[in-house]
What does this fold into?
Amino acid sequence: MGSAQVVLWTEGERGPRFPLDTASIAEAGGVLRLVACRDTRERIEAARDARVLVVSHAAVPEELFRRAPRLVGVVRTGIGLDTVDVASATRYGVCVAHVPDFCHDEVADTTWALLLAVARKVLVADRAVRQGRWAPNALLPMYRLRGRTLGLVGFGHIARKVAERARGFGLRVVAADPYVDGEVMAQEGVTKVTLEELLRQSDIVSLHTPLTAETRGLIGEAAFRQMRPGAILINTSRGGVVDEPALIAALQSGRLAGAGLDVLAVEPPSPENPLLRMDTVVLTPHYASTTVEALEDLARKVNLQVVQLLRGEWPTYLANPEVRERPECRLVSREGDR
It folds into this structure.
């Protein structure tokens, strides 16, 4: 039947962040196609004859699974699965894989880079010096971190590494996560609280929750009203966790002292986005995962799972294990069709 297609969508004219191993793919009976797609329609068309689809940030909707009958697996090049319709994939018998142990240290480091940049007004100070202004006291008010409270919304692997780093700065750390026991948090030196308690107590709120129906818009107008006046917000999770218009209003009113954002509701942002013109906001281009080491690790684990799917094997990081039990599971039905 010829080689099975492995399709990797590229974003516009940009290539992938890392190379797939064409030799190992060919050995497993596959051939790699890199396709530059501008919209959902082009992406669905590109995936029509794919056996395996490799995706970064673009959405994978129900229609794609329906119109790609040869597709056995989707491999997401990262941790989050908010862009993939996992329920539809399972219903159509398609495996969904990702790399859940990717870039934990990198995102924790970026969280702290943003936190320090906002709290110490690094960009404002840098800009002042470049413009010939040498007036340290003009940057007040600023406050020492030791003794203040850091609130972590979500307490997964990355948040735990953020808490580990917080100990060196002498912060008190609280966390809100309905899926993690207080005893587990206590072992990390963290106090479990409700989200409402966290917002009221924290001088710095850092977001580490996945984007789901439950968390979309979680930090909105009501949350900002509950936060301490002069608090700082850090977001290295997903832009959709924050109601961006409410964030802008909280910053403009002075309710928030600042924000460090690696993620936004729309990426890249519109030139008209008010966040781009705020001195109290530090922005980075969704780059928290980006180091040489992290991308090498990601490439290795994505390549492995692509090859596993081509060989009819279950991927190492199967995100929808219930697909194993479904009679329409394409991986099983196509084992003899490779």
Observations:
- DSSP finds 13 helices and twelve strands in the chain.
- The domain at 4-102+291-337 is CATH 3.40.50.720 (Rossmann fold).
